TrEMBL record:
Name by which UniProt lists this protein: Retinol dehydrogenase 13
Source organism, top-level taxon: Eukaryota
Family assignment from sequence similarity: Belongs to the short-chain dehydrogenases/reductases (SDR) family.
Keywords of this entry: Oxidoreductase
GO molecular function term, any single one: oxidoreductase activity
Pfam families: adh_short
UniProt-listed InterPro entries: NAD(P)-bd_dom_sf (IPR036291), SDR_fam (IPR002347)
Transmembrane domains' residue ranges: none
Organism: Takifugu flavidus
Length: 343
């Protein structure tokens, strides 16, 4: 009997990351709950893809902590239902559903414009939405669906909201990445899979590598310049970090084929009971990056759950990160005025 390739990859990556750690604690693989008790009363948080999974549980937890939560989702019916549920369970009436389709540059621009006009400030931007190993497809603007939604959509959204984030500083940007970035590679000659045979796994890994490269490049650009007079960095006050939340049971993996056979449902169940955690626990690392006092001033880092780690070697390539930024600007149509204004 042969394991499904995605099962082998999932188990292999996770065990490789954990093989030098003790598993005596029940929090070993899950990371446990966010240790910070910080509240965010009066702060505004935008979360993409917040109607289900990690995004929804992140919205719920931050609503409990007093935040004004804006849930940006493609499916407004599901988003409205999720927002209503969260308002009811947290008794926080400041939880709102807003239309955002990350597969449409037009929708992203409209969403960003709404935030800029209607919100007094923006304290935390959580780029959570994503698609994983889905069939070949294109966004409304012709990009590979995984590269378009997972990277380009959030790249444009973040750039359009940078002025608002700077005005609200200290503020934070959190990009949901994945351990999958370690086998990703940027193919600048064919980012959208138009010349080579489509490989959904590699398309996903490329998009997740792009998340980490984007995080590092944005942090570098936001850091500012060295001010000799004050002997300090004159930064923007905006930090940006990437996080792999762990292996979480969400709708994101619906295209992977996991648990669709009797073998994977029975023989692999013991593995998954150890490795896979609930969306509620999956949200905890994101909440930690969003609210923890320990994260003040920390930027350009990659976190595996709540532990800062060095990402894969290809994610540390500054030339590749710079090239990705330049290509992404062109692809999403950030004009010269927008480029100069935001950074």
């Amino acid at each position: 009997m042969v394991l499904h390739p995605s099962c082998c990859t999932l188990i292999g990556w996770t065990l490789q990351e954990r093989n030098d750690e003790s598993i005596s604690s029940p929090n070993h693989l899950t990371g446990g709950r966010c240790p910070s008790k910080a509240t965010i009363n009066g702060k505004t948080v935008v979360i993409t893809g917040a109607n289900t999974g990690i995004g929804k549980e992140t919205a719920r937890e931050l609503a409990k902590r007093g935040g004004r939560i804006i849930m940006g989702c493609r499916d407004m019916e599901k988003c409205e239902a999720a927002a209503k549920e969260i308002r009811g369970t947290t008794l926080n009436r400041h939880v709102f559903a807003c239309q955002l389709d990350l597969a449409s540059l037009k929708s992203i621009r409209e969403f960003a414009e709404k935030i800029k006009k209607e919100e007094q400030h923006l304290d935390v931007l959580i780029n959570n939405a994503g698609v994983m190993r889905c069939p070949a497809g294109k966004t409304k603007d012709g990009f590979d669906i995984q590269f378009g939604v997972n990277h380009l959509g959030h790249f444009l959204l973040t750039n359009l909201l940078l002025d608002k984030l700077k005005e609200s500083a200290p503020s934070r940007v959190i990009n949901l990445a994945s351990l999958a970035h370690i086998v990703g590679k940027m193919d600048f000659e064919d980012l959208n899979w138009e010349k080579k045979k489509f490989d959904t796994k590699q398309a996903y890994c490329q998009s997740k590598l792009a998340n980490v490269l984007f995080t590092r490049e944005l942090a570098k650009r936001l850091q500012g310049k060295w001010t000799g007079l004050l002997n300090m960095w004159a930064g923007s006050g905006v930090t940006v970090n990437a996080v792999h939340p762990g292996v979480v049971a969400t709708e994101l993996g619906r295209h992977t084929g996991l648990h669709q056979s009797q073998f994977s449902s029975t023989v692999l169940s013991p593995f998954f009971s150890l490795l896979v955690k609930s969306p509620e626990l999956g949200a905890q690392p994101v909440v930690y990056l969003a609210v923890s006092e320990d994260m003040e001033g920390v930027t350009g880092k990659y976190f595996d759950v709540r532990t800062e780690k060095e990402p894969a070697r290809q994610a540390l390539d500054e030339a590749v990160a710079h090239r990705l930024w330049e290509v992404s600007q062109r692809l999403v149509g950030l004009d010269q005025e927008e480029k100069a204004h935001h950074l």
